[in-house]
Amino acid sequence: xxxxxxxxxxxxxxxxxxxxxxxxxxxxxxxxxxxxxxxxxxxxxxxxxxxxxxxxxxxxxxxxxxxxxxxxxxxxxxxxxxxxxxxxxxxxxxxxxxxxxxxxxxxxxxxxxxxxxxxxxxxx
Length: 124
Hints:
The protein is mainly α. The protein folds into 2 domains: about 1-80, no CATH class; about 85-124. Helices cover about 65% and strands about 5% of the residues. The protein is built from 5 helices and 2 strands; from the N terminus they run αβααβαα. The radius of gyration is 19 Å and the shape is extended. The chain starts with a helix and ends with a helix. About 0% of the residues are buried.
């Protein structure tokens, strides 16, 4: 949703379907050799801080989302909540096709689906 705002796409976007299928995250990248060069004590502190930052991000994403929805509605974008179960059922053949066509790992796919379902349940 932030892309709609940041790029000005809300100016021509008429409708948004709230599928709740995407989780925006921020990433911390560091070269492995740099990470390993940090003394273990400080690596442990860095690891703990990254976990805490991730928790903070997830907790605050809901507030960010609410303000983004309000912004889009104020700009005239129609916000549509979708029936997630019906949407998932309709898309099921696509998931199977991706696994078959591209050799995607079905177990990894199921882990991602389970994670997403858990996230949705916590954020309803």
